[in-house]
Amino acid sequence: MITYFFIFLFATFAAAATGAMFPPGAWYEKLNKPSWVPPNWVFPVAWTSIYLLISFAGARVAGMEGAQMALAFWAVQIAFNTLWTPVFFGLRGLKASLPIMAALWLAVLGATITHWQADLWAGLAFVPYLAWVTVAAALNIAMARLNPDVERLRIDQL
Asked: Which of 41, 42, 101, 149 has a 20 to 30 A CA-CA distance from 16?
């Protein structure tokens, strides 16, 4: 299980790397934000905790018979997780990131259910992620609504 854990943890580091590559920056600080946006320090704490938990969950089910669907959902959620940051922060695509966020939320829901079916502890490990992505989706929607005139960057402007 330890080897599997580090494999899954490596995948989460790849997703987290997009956060380092595309930090929020000054443009984000100037945006209109809802009153309930968490303070900036909460984000790295939440994501570090979530990445450790989902690495644990993936490692729990990795060698199990019949866990293919759980592992497929694990892969899909980390792919959408990795994609969202460059679109939202990199391209400043507040609206463009909404379909990615919707797909991410569905993938995390699928991962939660399928991990739960395979192993109780693996399913429980996904619950904080589902809660956090629900808040992140609401925040993404609110930010898009509160900032309708934010100009999206083109890829060649990055």
From this structure: 149
